[in-house]
Design a protein that fits this description.
- The structure is a single chain.
- The chain has 288 residues and is α+β, with helices and mostly antiparallel strands.
- The protein has 2 domains: 2-108; 114-284, no CATH class.
- The chain has 4 helices and 12 strands, in the order H-H-H-H-E-E-E-E-E-E-E-E-E-E-E-E.
- The strands form 2 sheets. Strands 1, 2, 5, 7, 8 and 9 form a 6-stranded antiparallel sheet that branches.
- Strand 3 (164-174) and strand 4 (179-183) form a beta hairpin.
- Helix 1 packs across helix 4.
- The protein is rod-shaped, with a radius of gyration of 41 Å.
- It starts with a helix and ends with a strand.
Length: 288
């Protein structure tokens, strides 16, 4: 019942709008018809004596004209509703196609992760010495001088933010006489040292960047025995000879790999002076 009432409401609205649009023409037509009648009476084409008793015969053409106009607009109202429906449907369809194309554009657009900066920090090194009855006991070791890279997923003004999911960092180090690559450690991920030796740590290698997020990537750490590449494996033993970085300058290349991230490559120079703090210097940035 409600739908029927709503239909007739729209029907009467369409009728009245269509009728009102032609009011000007109807008024002009009525005035012309009245003027013709007056001129006919004035010039004697219609005698005043003939008018008496014949009012209906004179008026019915004019009344009929108004009735025809009324009926015309009444018949046109459903057609106007249908035309409006088709126009609205076409507009909605065009809008849907526009949104689908925009969605496809967003989905096919690579996430543009950017280099935010580099940071040197002093962090504490710990060692797991006992794990009985699900109770972990750790022993603090020496403090380490650590260098990290900060990456971000900035928001864009021309499209909604896009998530970079499961981003893997591959870090390549070039020593004077050797080159090796490790899978980097995101500092916001869990601590592999808190897991048992049989527990997997592959889930710690990837991280997600929500729009506006920043993530820190460990690069290297310096202890009393020297400078070493640092990742999740380093928490089980930092001083690995195959990961030692030699010399006062080491070339570092970071490659970010993920779906819609398109292998972004960042290069750095890691300075390790004999006396002084570690420094990680960006050599180039990928074009946005």
């Amino acid at each position: 019942m409600r739908a029927i009432l709503e239909y007739y409401k729209r029907f009467l609205q369409a009728f009245w709008e269509d009728f009102a649009k032609s009011t000007r023409g109807q008024v002009i037509g009525a005035l012309l018809a009245g003027a013709i009648l007056i001129l006919q009476i004035h010039y004697g084409a219609i005698k005043q004596a003939e008018i008496k008793g014949n009012e209906w015969a004179i008026a019915w053409p004019y009344i009929g004209l108004v009735a025809c106009l009324f009926a015309l607009h009444w018949i046109r109202a459903p057609w106007k509703l249908d035309q409006g429906h088709h126009v609205t449907h076409k507009q909605h369809r065009e809008r849907i196609v526009e949104l689908e194309n925009y969605k496809k554009k967003v989905e096919e657009t690579d996430v543009c992760l950017v280099l935010v900066g580099c940071r040197t920090e002093v962090v504490g090194q710990i060692e797991l010495i006992e794990n009985q009855r699900s109770t972990a006991v750790y022993r603090p070791l020496e403090n380490l001088e650590s260098v990290r890279v900060i990456f971000g997923n900035p928001k864009k003004s021309d499209m909604p933010g896009k998530v970079a999911e499961r981003v893997l960092a591959k870090v390549e180090f070039t020593n004077p006489n050797s080159t090796f690559e490790i899978e980097g450690r995101w500092t916001q991920s869990g601590q592999p040292a808190t897991r048992g030796f049989l527990q997997p740590t592959l889930d710690l290698l990837r991280t997600t960047f929500e729009p506006g997020d920043e993530r820190h990537l460990d690069i290297a750490a310096k202890c009393s025995d020297g400078l070493f590449a640092y990742n999740n494996d380093s928490q089980f033993g930092l001083q690995r000879k195959d990961r030692q970085l030699i010399g006062e300058s080491v070339h570092v290349k970071v490659t970010l790999v993920a779906r819609h991230v398109n292998n972004l490559v960042f290069e750095f120079k890691l300075k390790n002076p004999i006396s002084g703090a570690l420094e990680l210097i960006p050599m180039q940035r990928p074009a946005p």
